[in-house]
């Protein structure tokens, strides 16, 4: 073996320089005589130098042969570090037979804490700017078994909470147990998010454009909408998901003309369940990039006025789609309040003020966007959103709507993602209403949000 | 001209021979299935394969890190964040049956909705 190596080395050492020297020799034949003589001298010197090096190499090779008593044994390559993915080796691991969740039940395990945060700088027109650490949210999860799991979400809004003072809020937005039967049928109970709209269940800051949530998802759909409840959820067919819960109803005394349903949720604080509301959502996610959903809510809302029969119904449709650089999302929500006239009369009798609760509210928005990654290295996005929301879309008979509550908004902005889980946002909101007396206020908004 | 054509044909034949004769990683071509994860869905969420096939799942995320765990098996992968490549799971589907896969990394409020099924058919 060593002889063969030496022969090869000798052949290469001699052959390669000769080949390299061949080309200049040919070209030198066409040159003038003095130049040819100079080239021949140079070639002679190079050949001598190469021969000297070859002799050195042969000498060193002999020394090595003498020093090595036995041929080298082949050495096993170092073991690769363990991989989480099975390596694509000729011996492909088998998936094994399917095993039910009962058989795979493992010891309880607690997952790491996750969470999201965002803080904003809001500069309303003609007003001082405000810096607000808007949300500090921590998520907890624990698996008792593969079938029985807990998820909790604790939120501190506006950073500071103090009794009897205008301040932020501490909210338990989620705290439920999931009992998994099979993909098509699972039971859930505890503090739940109402499965209504796009934002209520997907509100991590990097997952939506705009510093603040859409107005429709504030006044028409009161995000974050959560309450105690129970229900079922699952996936059916190819790409269909559903949720169906019973939850405490909305509180009619907190519905307002300006802010719609925003403050009407009971939030699991000793929620009155003289009657319960039903809510559900059906989603199609079977086409890449597309999510299309429809949601509803229906429940009696006048538990504080048992003699009146008032119910709130909500129908919502939404869609999100992205392909390549481009994306779009849209949402439509319509609220029906049965017995709004009786509610207004009763509230006027008890408080002295007619709250002008509408019999119907309506809102929608459409938001085209662009996010060129991976087309360009810098992960940035831009969007334009048009919203229309009217918390007095239709009033009880004999009552005229106030035009300042029929509003529209153009929101234009951009996002920069230094990491897919971290986002810097900026936008400008132009808000208009139909009133000639009350002018809506535009605002410049800057924010940072992250998920971990 | 004819000589050039003959040389090119010989080169093409030689290349084809090398490609066909080179040892493959698998005795059969894997059935490649591309899965996209995004809060809070896998697309496709229902995967069907034939028994005996080698399945290569190529997993990509449209947003944050997700996990991909086939319940009852050791197969568990962390899917890189958007724009940071893909994770790959390779296995032989030897047994007929229905498997559940799920996101194994907390990814947001709807994390527990991220599930799907893998069906191995005859």
What does this structure look like?
With 452 residues, chain A is an alpha+beta fold. Chain A has two domains: 2-66; 111-135 and 178-451, Porin. Chain A is 18% helix and 41% strand. The longest helix of chain A is centred in the first third of the chain and has 35 residues, at 33-67. By secondary structure, chain B is of the alpha+beta class. In chain B, 16% of the residues lie in helices and 43% in strands. Chain B contains one helix and nine strands, in the order αβββββββββ. In chain B, strands 3-9-8-5-6 form a five-stranded mixed sheet, with no helix packed on it. In chain B, strands 2-1-4-7 form a four-stranded mixed sheet, with no helix packed on it. In chain B, a hairpin with a 5-residue loop joins β5 (66-70) and β6. The interface between A and B is large, with 61 and 56 residues.
- CA radius of gyration of chain B is 20 Å
Number of domains of chain B: 1
**Helix proportion of chain B:** 10-25%
Give the strand line-up of the largest sheet of chain A: 2-3-4-5-6-7-8-9-10-11-12-13-14-15-16-17
Radius of gyration of chain A, taken over Cα atoms and rounded to an integer in Å: 36 Å
Give the tally of structural domains of chain A.
2
CATH superfamily of the largest domain in chain A: Porin
Low-confidence stretches of chain B: 11-25
Q: Report helical residue fraction of chain A.
A: 10-25%
The greatest interface between two protein chains, and residues involved on each side, is:
A-B, 61 and 56 residues
**Could you tell me the mean pLDDT of chain B?**
83
Q: How large a portion of the residues of chain B is in β-strands, by DSSP E? A: 35-45%
Uncertain segments of chain A are: 1-5, 9-36, 69-81
By CATH, the topology of the largest domain in chain A is: Porin
